[in-house]
Amino acid sequence: MTSRPAPPAEPRTGGPGAAPLAEARGLELRRGTHLAVAASDLTLPAGRLVAVIGPNGSGKSTLLHALAGTLPPSAGTLTVRGESPARHARRTAFVMQTVEVPRGVPLTVRDVVTMGRYPSTGWFRRMRAADRAAVQAAMDRMDVTDLAGRHLDELSGGQRQRAYVAQGIAQEHDVLLLDEPVTGLDLVSARTIDHLLHEEPERGVSVVYTTHDLDEAAAADHVVLMAGRVVASGTPAEVLTEAHLETAYGRGALHRPATPSAGAAVPFLDDPVDGAGRR
Ligand SMILES: Nc1ncnc2c1ncn2[C@@H]1O[C@H](COP(=O)(O)OP(=O)(O)OP(=O)(O)O)[C@@H](O)[C@H]1O
């Protein structure tokens, strides 16, 4: 029996020769006067899942803010889909790390998800059928439809995080940025969000998210390793090397298990250090 070669995979936006999601040259980012990301070059593929890793304070959130267009470069250049991040912001959904629930503002889950449509409807415009359908689809995907009428301050942390991710994907977007979307969540919420991260690129959306989990990063299409600058950027195999991880996390921060399990693809982090090398 002859086996025929598998047909080529459906090309995604990030195929060879495709325009990149983001390009940075000599990019420098400051938070106030603090230099959070020193001059770095970076090319991120479009239509892929990109994981940004690095110790606490290494500049991961800062890079996401720059991609979202909320933090302009202090030096160098950064483009998203060939234009300035601020110009592309209308089509960039950004789910931030911690969103404080405004006290005394009785927002329901549906209200919060509906806000995801404001970039296209405007704050005072009427919701059209397409807007309502997008809100419903986002709530279904994040499994918060049953919670639609509940107030945000009545929800668990995981339920609230799912509502905020639903707000992000309710927006018309081709770029989705998420800051530590699964940190501290229970298995069900983490799985729901993790599933979405891997599903969005299939729809042509470029996803960039930050994580502290090296195994999660190993499952992404592209990894960016930060330590006050971009230490390495490429495929998981190119980036998750002992040499690169030691540069970012410090010597002695890694260990390999004495009896490696079948799934242990990357070294373990022993005692995470922060971006300045402090333990
Ligand atoms: N608003 C701010 N004003 C001044 N400095 C800031 C501000 N936000 C962050 N920084 C500093 O910028 C650096 C990078 O912070 P950033 O939040 O990007 O790190 P991170 O890698 O996302 O960290 P974590 O893993 O802890 O979330 C840190 O030294 C941090 O203290």
TrEMBL record:
<keyword id="KW-0813">Transport</keyword>
<keyword id="KW-0547">Nucleotide-binding</keyword>
<dbReference type="InterPro" id="IPR003593">
    <property type="entry name" value="AAA+_ATPase"/>
</dbReference>
<keyword id="KW-0067">ATP-binding</keyword>
<dbReference type="GO" id="GO:0005524">
    <property type="term" value="F:ATP binding"/>
</dbReference>
<feature type="region of interest" description="Disordered">
    <location>
        <begin position="259"/>
        <end position="279"/>
    </location>
</feature>
<keyword id="KW-1278">Translocase</keyword>
<dbReference type="GO" id="GO:0016887">
    <property type="term" value="F:ATP hydrolysis activity"/>
</dbReference>
<dbReference type="InterPro" id="IPR027417">
    <property type="entry name" value="P-loop_NTPase"/>
</dbReference>
<dbReference type="InterPro" id="IPR003439">
    <property type="entry name" value="ABC_transporter-like_ATP-bd"/>
</dbReference>
<dbReference type="Pfam" id="PF00005">
    <property type="entry name" value="ABC_tran"/>
</dbReference>
<feature type="region of interest" description="Disordered">
    <location>
        <begin position="1"/>
        <end position="20"/>
    </location>
</feature>
<feature type="compositionally biased region" description="Pro residues">
    <location>
        <begin position="1"/>
        <end position="10"/>
    </location>
</feature>
<protein>
    <submittedName>
        <fullName>Manganese transport system ATP-binding protein</fullName>
    </submittedName>
</protein>
